[in-house]
Amino acid sequence: MDLFAFLRAARANPLTTWFREHFEHLIVAGDGALGRVTVVSDPAAIRHILVDNAANYRKDDLQRRVLAPGLGNGLLTAEGEEWRLQRRTLAPIFSPRHVAGFQAPMSEAADRLAGRLARRSGQTVDVALEMTRVTLDVLERTIFTHGLPRKPEALGRAMTSYFEALGPIDPLDVFGLPDWVPRIGRIRARPALRFFAEIVDELIARRRALLAGGEAPHDVLTLLLRAQDPETGRGLSDLEVRANIVTFIGAGHETTANALTWTLYCLSQDEAARERAEAEIDAAFAGDPAPCSEALPFTRAALEEAIRLFPPVPLMSRQALAEDRLGRIKIPRGSLVTIAPYVLHRHRRLWQDPDAFVPERFLPENRARIDRFAYLPFGAGPRVCIGMSFSLMEATLVLAHLMRAVRLDRSPGAGPVVPLHRVTLRPRDGLRMRVTRRAAAPPE
């Protein structure tokens, strides 16, 4: 593929730039539009990059140019000592004890969604939009319990606009032009960026006033404003607080909403798997009106298998700070190393029947057979997603409450569902599905 063909394909949908050899060879290296690029799907080499020699690999400039305008220098984009300080400071917020305390508000948000869709039985809805709504509802109940300054739907639209504007690769970034040269994507993203700034400033001002009066709720926002580095006692600066609030909003709802959307799609295509999940869910609710995610192993396995096939973040890239080697492959200093979960999770040498939806892979008795570095929906190593347990618990509970109440099916004659890579992985045209109320649904 020549330079301009690559740029066109990458801008339209980067998934189309993966070829057969990427799914069949564990390491593919070559020179292209982005210079020397090494695509790594070998679990041992991935461990080397993300864990054993992680200090030699930082997030590359292209990735930072896409994320930094909206997410600032928060946990997702910071590097070096600044990142380490933020990670130490924020880690206690997502400890197992704190995350376990979010189960009740997550279930309340899921119940609200289930009731809303049950009342729409016989109608067609955009499941992708509904999953965005429920994950924003969870954010309001767990992170910003006094509510968001604006309607959650407006925030969801702004986040979508941001990813749509900045997600496509800009040739100016590929060629390394200075940041002061205007980019079309950044111009299109400005309204969303202004919206984020206004919301965050309002959130912080309102919460600081509550903290001063001793009436602040004990949620993630309060913990964020009170957080201190356990080693130095230093708190986060206002800029770091702002950056991480936007990161939590973006990463905290967008990726989970996509994971839920793809899981519901996969289950709608596999009747046996859906019936097994429904039976498990019905039994769990029969024994407990508020079952925990641990009581739903097959439901969670279906979720994990769906995000194997459709990882919410389909691409990670790193830049080598010094020359390195991956076996016989030389990694030049300054070159790009790419780990693509979308490729890794469908690799012919790592998975049996890699393109099939097989939730049983992730049942507890089978999970140990999966190499830790062959499955990376949340990354790995020091930069593994800090909200992983939060997201998995949230998604499992939402699935349980929703699937207890309704069944979602693709309408007859509906066109193909096309995954689109725009920073995250979402259905290109949403996901229209028909709602049918289930007999197991609780009374209205």
Q: What overall form do the CA principal axes indicate?
A: globular
- Helix content estimate: 40-55%
List the quaternary state of the chains. single chain
Strand content: 5-15%
Overall number of strands? 12
Query: Low-confidence spans: pLDDT under 50, at least 5 residues?
Result: none
| Gap from first CA to last CA | 57 Å
List the helices and strands and how they pair.
Layout: H1 3-12, H2 20-24, E1 27-32, E2 35-40, H3 43-52, E3 57-59, H4 61-71, H5 80-90, H6 96-100, H7 103-118, E4 124-126, H8 127-142, H9 152-166, H10 171-174, H11 184-212, H12 220-226, H13 238-268, H14 271-287, H15 297-309, E5 316-320, E6 324-326, E7 329-331, E8 336-339, H16 341-344, H17 364-367, H18 388-405, E9 406-410, E10 419-422, E11 424-427, E12 432-437
Parallel strand pairs: 2-8
Antiparallel strand pairs: 1-2, 3-5, 4-12, 5-8, 6-7, 9-12, 10-11
Helix pairs in contact: 7-8, 7-18, 8-9, 8-13, 9-11, 13-15, 13-18, 14-15, 14-18
Descriptive overview:
The chain has 444 residues and is an alpha+beta fold. 51% of the residues lie in helices and 12% in strands. It contains 18 helices and twelve strands. The strands form four sheets. It has a five-stranded mixed sheet. The radius of gyration is 22 Å and the shape is globular. The mean pLDDT is 87.
In short:
The protein is α+β, with helices and mostly antiparallel strands and about 450 residues long. It is built from 18 helices and twelve strands.
Question: Which tags fit this structure?
Answer:
single chain; 444 residues; alpha+beta; five-stranded mixed β-sheet; 12% strand
